[in-house]
Structures are given as C-alpha cells and as structure tokens.
Amino acid sequence: MSLPLSPSPPVRPVPAASHPTMLDVARLAGVSLKTASRVLNGEPHVAAATSEKVQLAARRLVFRPNGIARELRRGARSTAVGLIISDVGNPFYARRGACTA
Questions:
Q1: What digits encode the pLDDT tens for the residues 20-50?
Q2: Model confidence, pTM
Q3: Per-residue DSSP letter, 98
Q4: How many other C-beta atoms can be found within 10 angstroms of the C-beta atom of residue 30?
C-alpha cells in the first residue's frame, strides 16, 4: 500500500474504542514493525522516504505512543495493583477497603 506524500487530515480507520498500535502504523506505511519502531523512536539508519511514509501513516492514524507500555517494556516496575472481586456490593469488601485505607 503506498501513501501520498502530501499531508492529509487525520483519518481514523480503526474503531473509536481502540487505539492504533505501532503495528497498525507499520501496515499502513507498508514497512516492518521494527522499521516503524525505529522511525517513531527517532533511531538512525532509516531512509528519508521510508521515515516520511511512517510519519505520515502515524499522523493519519492519530497514533500516540503509550508511555506506560513503553516503560514496562523497558523493564520498569509498576506500582499498580489489580483487584478482581465478584460482587462490589458485598459488605465484606467494603469493610476490607475501609480497614486498609
């Protein structure tokens, strides 16, 4: 798939509920995931024409890097804790939350 080199307004071909990924950018630009990653992370050794295609695809998809995902991928630790409970209306859980707050 080839892209025009003239700037165009942002187009969101993915459902509004989802966010475009780097893989979406790579597919639209017609390059590998690694090449799209190199361009979007500002790494050297990418041809100017290829870089322009990737940047245009990112603009058209309104791609925004996920900073939290990036940090976790690099080995950073998160302090977030997930909790799955079956019934939020159960008084047992309300008491537990009040005790630890």
A1: 999 999 999 999 999 999 999 999 999 999 9
A2: 0.58
A3: H
A4: 14
C-beta of residue 54 within 8 angstroms of C-beta of residue 36: yes
The two structure tokens encoding residue 92: 């047992």
Q: What share of the chain is helix, strand, coil (3-state, %, to 5)?
A: 45, 0, 55
The set of residues, in sequence order, having a beta carbon less than 8 Å from that of 29 and lying 6+ positions away, is 3, 36, 50, 53, 54, 56, 57
State the angle between helix axes of 22-29 and 48-61 in degrees (0 to 180), rounded to the nearest 10.
Answer: 120
Backbone phi, then psi, for 10, in 5-degree steps?
-60, 140
**Structure tokens of 47?**
């041809």
